[in-house]
Amino acid sequence: MATRTKQIALDEIQGTFREQYMRIYDYGHELLRANPGSSIRIQVQKSTNYCIFQRIYVCLEACKQSFQHCMSFIGLDGYFLKTPQGEQLLTAIGWDPNDQMLPIAYAVVEVETNDSWTWFLNHLASDIGAEKMERSTFMSDQQKGLLPAYKDVIPGVDNRFCVRYLYSNFRKRFPGLQLKQLMWKCSKATHWKDWERYMAELKAVNQEDFQYQNAIPPKYWSRSRFTYNSKVDTLVNNMSESFNAAIVDAREKPIVTMLEEIRVKLMTRWAENKDLAQNYSGTILPRIRIRLERRSRSARE
């Protein structure tokens, strides 16, 4: 009874899920009016008397322009929405010069597939530029359909797998602290000889584990094989996880409410960062300066 009463109250405040899908075009037009230069793409399945919503893609002008001044590194991820329709949210998150997440684009799709990722990447390439896209390095959690989508849209592009995600699958079959430490040593190795040495240690400890890990090309998960395209040596998709944590409450709300909450969070973030930047007098951004000071102290020790 309490659950039903709560849902009735929420419907009264936010509108029902059905009503919000009926307003999706109005929302898209309002976004374009208030944010000139933004990209809004809505896809529906047309019938004789009605349309069925399938997808919406959003790339705000501020996000689009900001990424042009950032490292060419993009984290891709997909999350289930906590709604009766069970759709998924696809996101593209960059990395700003202060070592913080920079949301670029997001989309609601019916399900993660090669087709939905291809659709998302095509729109992303149109917004950030094909040349910038081709020079970028992508990181993901091996989302379903994403690797074929790379081949369709940006063949040969540099891409990596989040090592934390790889390890979460790895430990289900090969638990234990020693194996965990060896896997991370292989990932963090910056020279191929070090990688081979740690892999040999892994093989000596557990032959099956070695074969499992060796089946994944090291270019996806070891620094020893990373290219120099992006100048980023991260092993984990932290920026996508940070964005997910910031919008976790919005993901259970009706579609227009959810999209608007995401937009407001981005707008608030841009305003706060603008104030911080205008009042900052240093020549090196705060997080980078802290990291340099930490490494300087470590070198002296």
Architecture blueprint of SSEs:
Blueprint: H1 2-14, H2 17-22, H3 24-34, E1 39-46, E2 51-59, H4 61-67, E3 73-80, E4 88-95, E5 101-109, H5 114-128, H6 130-135, E6 137-140, H7 146-153, E7 158-161, H8 163-173, H9 177-188, H10 192-205, H11 207-214, H12 238-247, H13 255-278, H14 286-300
Parallel strand pairs: 3-6, 6-7
Antiparallel strand pairs: 1-2, 2-5, 3-4, 4-5
Helix pairs in contact: 5-7, 9-10, 10-11
Can you give me a brief rundown of this structure?
With 301 residues, this protein is an alpha/beta fold.
What distinguishing features does this structure have?
301 residues; alpha/beta; 2 domains; 7-stranded mixed beta sheet; 14 helices; globular; MULE transposase domain-containing protein; MULE_transposase_dom
